[in-house]
């Protein structure tokens, strides 16, 4: 399919080039680059990035994702964990003078803890060296291991995200190795372990889902008190990936945004170019304004304004 005009890329600026060179020099992976995010030029020009730990190879073969996949062999691991990557990420955060960071990872089913210890390590190093930085993490499903999830949740975090990605019916085609109910359980358990943490999830549209399925999925997320939802257009990274069934217009994204707000989400980011970490800092700051006193992740007081939308 030919891309609609609203999905055209921005021109690469000098700042984008400098940020890419910095990450190359520090040997840092970002999901922005590995997943071919359409917002990379816009975000990098603002010194924004989503850091990706645990290497650049995923042990799953999701048909929508551009991140490096495992070779076709029965027993494969994602490679040795780079114990120095966390220090290099902290250095990049310092150089870029960031006060809000998003950390994600590839899925590492080959590791006993699914990589949770590396999440724990980077969170501790950021808090130790950059005390004023807010932290959002986007986690894999850790194979549904509650003890592993607790390792991460018990750290001092502001936002934890885990994406459903699509509606239940499409999981077998879209999310190899994932389980819809397991993902819902992860988001529910985060709140059970630490109610003050803001939870977040994301959906891709354009994979063949119906309006009814999308709304039912939104209801499922609200039933477990998920705070933030992101809705964006699926774009096929190559001809080897799942094809785009249709391009969703801006008016339809607006329709789903209003539906989500009506269901009680505290923030909704909905649009063709929206991705799970898109404008993450702005969304978190807007939520802080909307919550009543004493409800913020850092224990500070909200300003009691209306729910935010982006």
Task: Tell me what you see in this structure.
This protein has a single domain, classed as Aldolase class I (TIM Barrel, Alpha-Beta Barrel). Helices cover 36% and strands 13% of the residues. It is built from eleven helices and nine strands. Strands 1-2-3-4-5-6-7-8-9 form a nine-stranded mixed β-sheet, with helices on both faces. Helix 4 crosses helix 5 and helix 5 packs parallel to helix 6. It is an alpha/beta fold. Helix 5 links the parallel strand 3 and strand 4.
Write the topology of this structure.
Layout: H1 14-25, E1 29-30, H2 31-34, H3 40-45, E2 50-53, H4 85-96, E3 100-105, H5 116-129, E4 134-138, H6 146-153, E5 159-161, H7 171-174, H8 180-193, E6 198-205, H9 211-223, E7 228-233, H10 250-263, E8 267-270, H11 280-290, E9 308-309
Parallel strand pairs: 2-3, 3-4, 4-5, 5-6, 6-7, 7-8, 8-9
Antiparallel strand pairs: 1-2
Helix pairs in contact: 4-5, 5-6, 6-8, 9-10
Descriptors:
single chain, disordered C terminus, TIM Barrel, nine-stranded mixed sheet, alpha/beta, globular, 11 helices, 310 residues
Summarize it.
The protein is built from eleven helices and nine strands.
Discrete helix count? 11
> Main β-sheet, in a few words?
9 strands, mixed
Mean pLDDT metric = 86
Low-confidence residue ranges: 294-310
Q: What is the terminal-to-terminal distance?
A: 27 Å
Instruction: Just give the CATH class.
Output: Alpha Beta
Structure summary, number of beta strands: 9
Describe the strand arrangement of the main beta sheet, using strand numbers.
Answer: 1-2-3-4-5-6-7-8-9
Structural class: alpha/beta
What count of structural domains?
A: 1
Instruction: Indicate the proportion of strand residues.
Output: 5-15%
Radius of gyration: 18 Å
Helix/strand order: HEHHEHEHEHEHHEHEHEHE
Helix content: 25-40%
CATH architecture: Alpha-Beta Barrel
